[in-house]
Design brief:
There is one protein chain. 74% of the residues lie in helices and 0% in strands. With 178 residues, it is mainly α. It has two domains: 79 residues, c-terminal domain of poly(a) binding protein; 88 residues, no CATH class. Helix 1 packs parallel to helix 3, helix 2 runs antiparallel to helix 3 and helix 6 packs across helix 7. The longest helix has 27 residues. The mean pLDDT is 82.
């Protein structure tokens, strides 16, 4: 298998994060979720993750936790990291979108071909519009909305899910009306 710096860094981060406390692991994962591909490229995100793991390990040696080092303003801390990064990579965003689109295609259409030998759906331009719209909505919800609300507390944390359900419902209603 071909390995580059990014995959090596991801592998090392995966091993190191498992050695941390559950609280530190959850905090790091929330910080990483807030840094979506629309805000920071994958390589920079993995370097930040490595640094956060190092901070957590150092705090553990001092008898403290990562939360103590960061403070209560996790969103502000994350926004400061994002501001100091090189930003998103357009190629990476496009490739992730294409990957998401192909995943939805596989989930929606391939089982029909396996069961029926062809598509039982009438392939109509409206169906394709529904397909692309739904996949795009899911991609945007995951990449833009989820990072905004992941560090929130209480019911605000679930606002992203509610927004996604509402948008998906609109797509479904539009499809049914045509």
């Amino acid at each position: 298998m071909f390995e580059n710096e990014l995959t090596l860094l991801e592998t090392e981060n995966y091993k190191q994060i498992k050695e941390l406390s559950k609280e530190d692991e959850k905090l790091i994962n929330n910080i990483m979720k807030r840094m979506s591909i629309f805000k920071i490229n994958s390589y920079d995100a993995q370097v930040v993750k490595r640094d956060l793991i190092g901070m957590a390990q150092e705090q553990k040696l001092n008898g403290s936790s990562l939360k103590d080092a960061i403070g209560d303003d996790v969103s502000g801390f994350t926004d400061e990291i994002i501001k100091n990064s090189e930003g998103p990579c357009i190629k990476e965003i496009i490739l992730n979108y294409m990957s998401s689109l192909s995943g939805y295609f596989f989930i929606w259409f391939i089982p029909a071909f396996l069961v029926y030998g062809n598509s039982p759906y009438r392939i109509h331009p409206v169906l394709l519009l529904f397909y692309f719209g739904s996949a795009t909505t899911a991609f945007i919800a995951e990449g833009l909305l989820s990072p905004i609300f992941c560090t929130e507390k209480g019911n605000k944390k679930y606002l992203e899910t509610i927004i996604f359900i509402l948008i998906a419902s609109v797509w479904g209603i539009l499809y049914l009306l045509t």
